[in-house]
Design goal:
mainly beta, four-stranded antiparallel β-sheet, 1 helix, globular
Length: 410
């Protein structure tokens, strides 16, 4: 009984590790597939439809979401998309079940039962998890072929075999986390059909993101039980350290090898960090706030940070400077940024939290589907927003806000 309880505790911690944000605003009450996909640039249409992506760098105007209706009145969300307009998401079909889908330019394709996408690359490789009440297995979909990816190992107990895919880079390398034959959780990378254990000096590790060089970041558990950010590269694992406290968590890595995440400090505060060339920098907070967490980094090294005090706010950290995203009264809560500098998030408007964007100093609130709420999961390389928006009956509907290029850049 003690071993079974330990297994269930570890499983619960593992299944919630895919949502690294400590301070995210309230979202609609359905399963969160927040993960960190690799950047998306280019790529063909995979559903034999014309690409609707705007030219790179186009600015934003106010946009109305396109609903992706479920076959039944299920809550849903789009969780990722690429610059070709291929998007992936899921509906919550039951308390422990989901129904995954792909959508592009009005064309809908259903994924096999209980498929929950988490990430997509520029070529249209979609990865995610086949979810159940006590188990989970990573999958890959590409050009109509859906494939379960298996496990590093496992045990014949309840929840004894689990794997999850968190990211895929432009070459198709998949990273994630899996159970092992010893009953531990280890980070893995998968190239082709081979799942490789990335290892750990302690008992557990996990993978969060991978760049186009194949460098993987995640966490590893040290022999003393503390959890540290880690980088796997060229058959070696590097401990990235902390900001003075016992734990650190990475969320993203760009192709320059810059890693961002959050760490506890010696006095117990949670702070966003940037790690580069062996040094971890505390990115600080906005005036009056106590904590912060990094959400994403662009290929140019711009870091998107959530600053937390009496409310969530955001700033960009660029070469040592903090650029606040709108006035404090706006309470713009950032979620993601793309390489065009378009920041997506939510802010209070019209009686509820609404999808919003920040671009070159300007905040724009975007529409809903008749209800007061909408939320953004990601902003694509093509400047589309993906997430969910409520109807008048408050049901969260999977939605895409298409990019709306202006006649001139802001």
């Amino acid at each position: 009984m003690r071993d079974r309880n330990r297994r269930l505790v570890l499983q619960a911690a593992f299944l919630t590790a895919a949502a690294p944000s400590f301070f995210a605003s309230n979202r609609p009450a359905f399963a969160d597939a927040g993960t960190q996909p690799a950047g998306s640039v280019g790529g063909p249409s995979l559903l034999d439809t014309a690409s609707t992506a705007p030219r790179p760098g186009s600015a934003w105007a106010e946009s109305t979401p396109i609903p992706i209706p479920a076959p039944q009145p299920w809550a849903g969300s789009v969780v990722c998309g690429n610059s070709s307009g291929l998007c992936a998401g899921f509906w919550q079909s039951s308390p422990y079940g989901v129904a995954g889908f792909l959508w592009q330019a009005g064309h809908l394709r259903h994924l096999p039962v209980n498929s929950m996408p988490t990430a997509i690359n520029s070529s249209g490789v979609v990865v995610g998890d086949i979810v159940g009440r006590y188990d989970r297995q990573a999958f890959r979909w590409f050009r109509g072929v859906w494939q379960p990816l298996g496990f590093l190992g496992g045990t014949d107990t309840l929840g004894g075999r689990i794997s999850t895919a968190t990211a895929v880079n432009t070459s198709g390398k998949i990273v994630g986390t899996s159970t092992t034959a010893a009953g531990e959780f280890h980070a893995f990378e998968l190239v082709g059909a081979t799942m490789k254990d990335l290892g750990t000096p302690g008992s557990h590790s996990s993978a969060a993101a991978v760049n186009d060089l194949g460098q993987t970041v995640g966490t590893h558990q040290r022999p003393d039980g503390s959890t540290r950010a880690a980088l796997w590269w060229d058959r070696r694992m590097y401990d990235l350290g902390t900001l003075g406290g016992p734990v650190s968590y990475p969320v993203s890595i760009n192709n320059a090898g810059q890693v961002v995440g959050h760490s506890l400090t010696a006095d117990g505060q949670l702070r966003a960090f940037l790690w580069q060339r062996g040094h971890m920098t505390d990115l600080g907070v906005l005036p009056g706030d106590q904590n912060s967490e990094a959400l994403a980094i662009t290929s140019h090294g711009q870091v998107l940070v959530r600053s937390v005090g009496t409310q969530n706010r955001g700033f960009l950290w660029i070469n040592g400077q903090r650029i606040e995203l709108g006035p404090a009264a706006s309470a713009f809560d950032p979620v993601d940024i793309n390489d065009n500098g378009l920041v997506a998030g939510t802010m209070s408007a019209a009686g509820g939290q609404r999808a919003a964007t920040w671009y070159r100093g300007a905040l724009t609130v975007h529409g809903t589907l008749g209800g007061p709420y909408s939320s953004v999961a990601k902003v694509t390389a093509g400047n589309a927003l993906v997430g969910s928006a409520t109807r008048e009956d408050l049901l969260p509907v999977a939605a895409v806000w298409p990019a709306a290029p202006r006649s001139r850049w802001a």
